[in-house]
Write a structure and sequence with these properties.
The chain is 47% helix and 16% strand. It is α+β, with helices and mostly antiparallel strands. It has three domains: 2-189, 2-Layer Sandwich (Beta-Lactamase); 208-321, Beta-Lactamase (2-Layer Sandwich), CATH 3.30.450; 324-386, Arc Repressor Mutant, subunit A (Orthogonal Bundle). The strands form two sheets. Strands 2-1-5-4-3 form a five-stranded antiparallel sheet, with helices on one face. Strand 4 (139-147) and strand 5 (150-159) form a beta hairpin. Residues 1-10 and 318-326 have low confidence and may be disordered.
């Protein structure tokens, strides 16, 4: 067994020494942007395992959260993934792939033909009939990168019948590329996260000073101003007790704000918003001690690997009270519906699509709502409505 493993490792090393593969790997490790990395990967996989279609999925959780991934098709794919194919894969992929993956946590590469005991039965499965056969594909190979117990990135190579199944030699080649892809993605993620932090701080210093906190996707603090740290201590322990505490020593997210972040994160993971458009979601929270909080989830418009961050802005309601509001019954039913969509975190573009109107019409009607309620921003409207 040990000798067999040594032979496999030697064969894999030999594959990587081929000039074309070496050139592709060198290009891969020189990239600092995700789009450049994706172009390099296309050249690499065209060299080590010729295919009909190449698809890469990133920010991937599992088949139960299919909508949370970005799926990219190779420029050379005969049948690139379109929205209809994506929906079909999402609908039928769970029953086909997930049991196999659940039984093999951490598996790096596998062939389509390994998923069922009798490969001849694959053609009878709904996934094969509706997804594979419908696009002229017969075989596929998959390369997976895991983060803990879930898949973070996957690469799928598909072939039509005349190309034949992926050989053991080609599977060894794919396996040999795995650590290179893992290192390259980790490097890109670090660079993107650093750029994201820099943009957050630039946004903060350009904008209004005061109590603001930025959290990453896991709700870890990226930045917290001194005012925010002191305000959180006040929220968590009360005004009187907080005066005798070192705010940073007792720093913790108030439960209401943490719950608001979790709710926005769940919305992003669902099909209810367009992640590719980089739309922000906002939720107002009225905390104790007269403190108002506006929690905004901000997806990156650039950079595919970084997940959204949370921006939390705080203010003392007693020092900055909301203006006196006219009764909400001054709003027409249509205006109340429009205000409700704003409170759900939808942008003007999303509201226009929801209501079948133009963005200009939505903007004009929203200005009327602002005027009737005596507010001057979406965040003030959200606080007023809540």
């Amino acid at each position: 067994m040990r000798m067999e493993g040594l032979k496999t490792a030697t064969a894999s090393a030999g594959i990587l020494q081929e000039p074309a593969v070496q050139a592709a790997l060198l290009d891969l490790h020189s990239t600092l942007k995700f789009r450049d990395l994706w172009c390099s990967l296309q050249r690499l996989f065209e060299t080590v395992a010729p295919h009909d279609t190449l698809v890469m999925s990133v920010n991937y959780l599992d088949w139960r959260h299919e909508s949370s991934k970005w799926r990219l098709s190779s420029a050379n794919s005969r049948r690139p993934h379109d929205e209809e194919t994506n929906r079909m894969v999402a609908g039928l992929g769970s029953a086909f792939f997930q049991p196999f993956l659940d039984a093999r946590p951490g598996i790096r590469v596998y062939r389509h033909s390994q998923i069922v005991e009798d490969p001849r039965q694959i053609t009878r499965t709904p996934y094969y009939r509706n997804c594979m056969a419908a696009n002229g594909w017969r075989y596929s190979a998959h390369l997976l990168l895991w983060s803990g117990n879930h898949i973070e990135t996957s690469v799928a190579l598909r072939r039509h019948r005349s190309q034949g199944d992926f050989s053991d030699h080609e599977m060894e080649a794919l396996s040999a590329t795995h650590p290179h892809l893992e290192v390259a993605l980790r490097r890109i993620r670090v660079f993107e996260e650093e750029r994201q932090r820099r943009r957050l701080l630039e946004r903060f210093y350009r904008g209004r000073p005061g109590a603001v906190v930025y959290l990453d996707w896991e709700m870890r603090v990226v930045y917290a101003s001194e005012d925010a740290v002191e305000t959180f201590a006040q929220l968590n322990f009360g005004s009187k007790a907080s005066r005798h505490l070192a705010p940073r020593a007792v720093f913790a997210l108030p439960a209401g704000i943490e719950a608001a972040c979790a709710e926005l994160r769940d919305a992003w993971m669902s099909n209810s918003i367009d992640r590719a458009a980089g739309e922000s979601l906002a939720k107002a929270v009225i905390e104790a001690e007269g403190i108002e909080a506006l929690v905004t989830m901000r997806p990156e418009k650039r950079g595919t690997l970084t997940k959204p961050v949370f921006e939390i802005r705080l203010r003392a309601a007693e020092r900055q009270p909301l203006p006196a509001l006219r009764p909400l019954h001054d709003l027409s039913p249509g205006e109340r519906g429009l205000a409700d969509l704003v409170c759900r975190g939808m942008s003007n573009k999303q509201i226009a699509a929801e209501l079948g109107k133009t963005e200009g019409t939505v903007k004009a009607q929203l200005s009327g709502v602002f005027r009737k309620l005596g507010v001057d921003s979406r965040s003030r409207l959200i606080l007023a409505m809540r």
